[in-house]
Amino acid sequence: MRASLLQIAVDPDESVESRRLRVAALVREQRGADLVVLPELWPMGAFAYELFATEAETPDGPTFRAMSAAARDAGVWLHAGSIVERVGDGPSRRLYNTSLVLSPAGELVRTYRKIHRFGFDKGEATLMDAGGELVTVALPETTIGLATCYDLRFPELFRGLVDAGAHLLVVPAGWPARRRAHWSLLARARAVENQSYVLACGTAGTHAGVEQAGHSVVVDPWGEVLAEAGDGEEVLTVEFDPARVAVTREQFPALKDRRLGLAVPPVRD
């Protein structure tokens, strides 16, 4: 299987529409790949909170249309990163950080609304609603499980995806450079503990004053890094064998030793 991670540089001087056109051209250049992955909120930038409301769109909006045509022209499965999804209008309007997965025919196959929102009491955590559904997508070669950026810090989400049949975990992100070490560590940890491939695709550049970590990475089920990008915009392409997940789980069947439903002791004063 051949995957290409497009580590997009988000430049505040580039318009959202110009970036859509540029990224669509990059997707078209990946003909021959089985799967192409884009970062989180690449149209405007994951920390450009002031643009969330104005650039919010529906799942069949301008980003989907541009990516649909590009996926169809390239003949690839496309994880189109995420958009700010708008649901409803007026006072009842809600926003989600929503990933789009497209088939080689350009069809929208699945969406995933980010479950864990970053920011604590500000930013994404206050501007967006949380998703509540684990999402997997069956590809011809494997089954992928979907997560986004801050989700990477919550291992129970990934165990749920593995229980749902995922062998490859795809994590688009807009991860800040000041926590780059956590990005690399957590990507490897999720691969090792779930005996799965991890494809973690981040942004490059600086947007809303936040320098991005870059360093998109592909990790195998043993936690070995197969490929890693640098700091700038880059296309990271790697070939790997999806069957290695089943082999790894058979050779080292740690997942079978999980003990679930353990009693939680009461808190003592």
Structural class: alpha/beta
Mean pLDDT across the residues is 96
Uncertain segments: none
> What assembly state would you assign to the polypeptide chains in this entry?
single chain
H and E order:
EHEHHEEEHEEHEHEEEEEEH
Radius of gyration: 18 Å
Tell the overall outline: globular
How many structural domains? 1
CATH domain topology: Nitrilase/N-carbamoyl-D-aminoacid amidohydrolase
Sheet of most strands = 6 strands, mixed
Count every beta strand, where a strand is a DSSP E run of 2 or more residues: 14
The level-1 CATH class: Alpha Beta
- Helix coverage percent of residues? 10-25%
The CATH homology group name: Carbon-nitrogen hydrolase
What proportion strand? Answer: 25-35%
User: Tally the helices: what do you get?
Assistant: 7
- Spatial gap, N to C terminus: 54 Å
Name of the CATH architecture:
4-Layer Sandwich
Strand order of the largest sheet: 5-4-3-2-1-14
Description:
There is one protein chain. This protein is α/β, with parallel strands linked by helices and 269 residues long. The chain has a single domain (2-254), classed as Carbon-nitrogen hydrolase (Nitrilase/N-carbamoyl-D-aminoacid amidohydrolase). The protein is 25% helix and 26% strand. It has helices spanning 16-28, 52-55, 62-74, 124-127, 155-163, 180-194, 244-251; strands at 2-7, 35-37, 77-87, 94-102, 108-113, 136-138, 143-146, 168-172, 197-201, 206-207, 210-211, 217-219, 225-228, 234-239. The strands form three sheets. Strands 5-4-3-2-1-14 form a six-stranded mixed sheet. A six-stranded mixed sheet has the order 6-7-8-9-12-13, with helices on one face. A two-stranded antiparallel ribbon has the order 10-11. A hairpin with a 5-residue loop joins strand 4 and strand 5 (108-113). Helix 1 (16-28) packs parallel to helix 3 (62-74). The longest helix is centred in the C-terminal third of the chain and has 15 residues, at 180-194. It is globular.
